[in-house]
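Ligand: iron/sulfur cluster. Inputs:
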Amino acid sequence: MSENSRFLNQSQLFSRDENHRLKILKAISTYDDQVDRMKSDQFIDWQQARLAAAKIKKYVLNNLPSLLEEFEEKISSRGTKVLWARNKEEAQKYFIDIATQHQAKKVVKSKSMTTEEIEFNELCQNNGIEVVESDLGELIVQLANEKPYHIVTPAMHKSKSEIGKLFQTRLGAPSTDDAELLTMIAREHLRQIYISSDIGVTGANFIVAHDGALVMTENEGNGRLTMSCPPVHVAFVGIEKVIPRLMDLSLFLPLLATSGTGQQITGYNSIIRGPRQRGEIDGPEEMYVILVDNGRSELYNKDHFRPILSCIRCGACLNACPVYRTIGGHTYHTPYQGPIGSVITPQFRGMEEWSHLSFASSLCASCTSVCPVNINIHELLLENRWEAHQKKKTDFTWNLGLKMWAWIMSDRFRLNIVSKLGRHIYRLFMPILSQSKRKRIPDLPSKSFKDMWNNYEQ
Ligand code: SF4
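Predicted complex:
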């Protein structure tokens, strides 16, 4: 089945599943309330904060190659090895080389979208390496043999009772749907994993060029344990994650926490400047940063798409999107869902298979209005549609429909005829449609806009 057909089938299934929609609505409503409160409590002027962040990110994009080199030079000087991966295959190869060198059999991993992008878990399974997710949401979806549902809250679609049953069957835990007890079960399970793993794998929310540091923000402390308990730390980082200076965090950390989870600041914010240094009592003995390109340079070279590389993966555009709220995260079948996913997936994975995602939008621009770094997301969806059309990746009926629409709309006489014809067709077909279909079609106004306009002029 093609990705397009799969997407359409899943969309129908999920949009009709009221139970599923209620769960998502509940989760996102809670998020909306918290974000609204935090925006006004924490920022004197939210719009100015967005503009300031966008300005810093624009500077980063204009100077990306030199900032990345500066990051490499600074962090390497304290013993971290930096590897540049042009694509998924290179990133995977680097990791397997590191794992082989350290005879690694077990890996603990904290939440990282870049590792999802390069199919890290599948890589480990295929190479006989056990990998355990340490973020609670990621652990839940891993135990359920599922993919993350949302880039920030991967198990948003699971109720507490579903998680209780999962822990009971997969971890042999006693039956419960109490959130605190469930957290303690996961915590107990993970403690042993941290200390018995050979490698800890993380992502990074930011990399700081002038200071050569990785920044990780999280709420469970699992990222910090993942990075510091095993003897080797490997971080996979997209090349766009740069900010110039440490002081920029004073804007980006609250911005990300507010847009991501409606918090003032996330619970744990770590600045990692390298492996354990002489005289330090903890931290990994070796550290690697794998800088992942995987299609980003191509986006960088397309002027109008370049701003999408400012994304800080807060997930706000997913929560604001009426399409995501209706069809849910798994329908997209990609690591990045919602509006951000619909912009970058066709670019990363090719228009051939993925252009349909750019059409999964009403272009209401809710995504653009909530984006904390002011990315013109809905306009980029249109750019994708244009590119798909140019490459002839839109389907025949869609193209024919658009051509006919343009032909009709470009002539007043044709438009009048079609409007009149449309009214007759409506009256003819409505009575023979089933009641459920009739309910979905809006009532026809008694007068057309043209008639109302003519009456108004008289
Ligand atoms: S595009 Fe904007 S709103 Fe969407 S995830 Fe990225 S930063 Fe957040």
